[in-house]
Design goal:
The radius of gyration is 18 Å and the shape is elongated. The chain has 184 residues and is mainly alpha-helical. Helix content is 73%, strand content 2%. A hairpin with a 3-residue loop joins strand 1 and strand 2.
Length: 184
């Protein structure tokens, strides 16, 4: 995964997310080291906790990128009082399932619904569609948040993080391109 976020907006949050991602990847590497047998139980426990944390942060990253870019777009496209009103409904945990993302983008344009739908329908790595991965991410986050289980393996958490970065990048690129065209 690329460790660089191409936009100023969200760069600090991306850096935080990547630091957790890289730490979990390092713990997983150490767990597989036959020389580290004496600390395997500690590494197993740490790995599971980091996996859960990474899933929660990954879903939150998508939400934040979606809402922040939408706020910036509305601010660039509207008078200040309109932007303030439109921004009122952002950052309220609207969720990031595929349907929620399509509905959100559709509040701007029905064409945007189709565009994000195409992105979500595309195959992601070897796991299936990006929509399926985002669905798993959201389901896993809810299970973790409600204490319903430790169902996410560390390797799966790493995959889900990559999926969250993929959709967040698409959302940021989508909004930032339109913001740039307004400024041109």
């Amino acid at each position: 995964m690329n460790a660089e976020w191409p936009f100023e907006l969200g760069a600090d949050r991306f850096a935080d997310l990547i630091s957790v991602y890289l730490r979990l990847a390092e713990v997983e590497k150490q767990r597989r080291d036959p020389e580290a047998i004496e600390s395997i139980a500690v590494l197993d426990d740490l790995s599971l906790h980091l996996a859960r944390y990474l899933v929660v942060r990954s879903a939150g990253f998508v939400e934040w990128i979606r809402d922040s870019n939408a706020r910036e777009y509305v601010g660039a496209h509207s008078r200040p009082e309109v932007a303030t009103r439109a921004g009122h409904d952002l950052f309220k945990g609207q969720g990031v399932t595929s349907d929620q993302l399509k509905t959100f983008m559709g509040t701007f344009s029905s064409a945007w619904t189709a565009e994000i739908g195409e992105c979500l329908a595309a195959n992601f790595e070897k796991q299936g569609s990006l929509a399926s991965e985002i669905g798993t991410l959201v389901k896993s986050r809810k299970s973790i948040a409600h204490g319903d289980g430790d169902v996410v393996s560390p390797s799966r958490a790493l995959e889900l993080c990559r999926a969250s970065v993929a959709i967040a990048t698409w959302i940021a690129e989508h909004f930032q391109a339109r913001i740039a065209s307004l400024e041109a």
